[in-house]
Automatic annotation (TrEMBL):
Region (Disordered): 1-31
Major location category of this protein: membrane
Species lineage: Eukaryota, Viridiplantae, Streptophyta, Embryophyta, Tracheophyta
Membrane topology note: Single-pass membrane protein
Annotated protein name in UniProt: Late embryogenesis abundant protein LEA-2 subgroup domain-containing protein
Keyword rRNA processing: no
Keyword terms of this UniProt record: Membrane, Transmembrane, Transmembrane helix
Superkingdom as given in the UniProt entry: Eukaryota
Cellular-component GO terms for this entry: plasma membrane; plasmodesma
Length: 241
């Protein structure tokens, strides 16, 4: 029997051929990724925007708080009150609505009292616009000369409405005119005041305000040869929202 060649003698365990270690590779992160990196310019811009918005927000909050505090101080020091207006007397010598067309002939004079109830505030009446309306239809406008009214002062003002105006009355409104004409010649005329005013505080003046006031009048006709038995009653004008 043939004999096999002698095998080399193995000392201990046989581990096989040696394994070479893997080489490490390093990848340079790209501009838009690579391990969550951030472009320095983009990061800087985002940071600046965030800081600017935060600063603007803080400035707005500070200004709002400052104005609120100033407003409270102003209120407690001066306690501003709304101006007061009364219609003391009216004279209506003509108020005729043509039966053939919509022309209204009128002659109306309104005497008013402007009162400043404030103790420490003066009022500049820069613009005084008086509008006369009949059943919601404006038929005339009068501009009154502006003036300054000191604290706790009054001033008498007269607005005159005279002329003729085409007013498109509905059938119901014409019926109301006929009813008032036959019922003692007392007409429901509205006087609306549109103002531009400024308050004076010591040497300073506030910005302009534009309040409106509404005066609901019942005006008797007093023409030559005919005087209504009704008497006009002094009327307070209300703040018109």
């Amino acid at each position: 029997m043939p004999t096999t060649p002698d095998q080399p003698h193995l000392n201990g365990a046989f581990y096989g051929p040696p394994i070479q270690p893997k080489s490490k590779s390093y990848n340079r992160p790209g501009r838009r990724g690579g391990g969550g990196g951030c472009n320095p310019l983009t990061c800087c811009f985002s940071c600046i925007c965030s800081c600017v918005l935060n600063l603007i927000f803080q400035i707005l909050i500070t200004v709002a708080i400052f104005l609120a505090v100033i407003g409270l101080i102003f209120w407690f020091l001066f306690r501003p009150n709304v101006p007061k207006f009364h219609v003391d007397d009216v004279t209506l010598t003509k108020f005729t609505l043509s039966p053939t067309n919509d022309t209204l002939y009128y002659n109306l004079a309104v005497n008013m009292t402007f009162r400043n109830p404030n103790r420490r505030l003066g009022i500049y009446y820069d613009t005084i616009e008086a509008n006369a309306l009949y059943h919601g239809r404006r038929f005339s406008t009068a501009d009154v000369q502006g003036f300054y009214l000191g604290h706790k002062k009054e001033n008498n003002v007269t607005a005159v409405f005279k002329g003729e105006q085409v007013v498109r009355f509905s059938g119901n409104e014409r019926s109301k005119y006929d009813s008032e004409k036959n019922d003692g010649d007392v007409y429901k005329i509205d006087l609306k005041l549109r103002l531009k005013i400024r308050f004076k505080v010591w040497w300073a003046k506030t910005p302009k305000f534009k309040p409106r006031f509404d005066c609901d009048l019942k005006v008797p006709l007093s023409s030559k040869g005919k005087v209504s038995s009704a008497q006009f009653e002094r009327t307070k004008c209300d703040f018109d929202w």
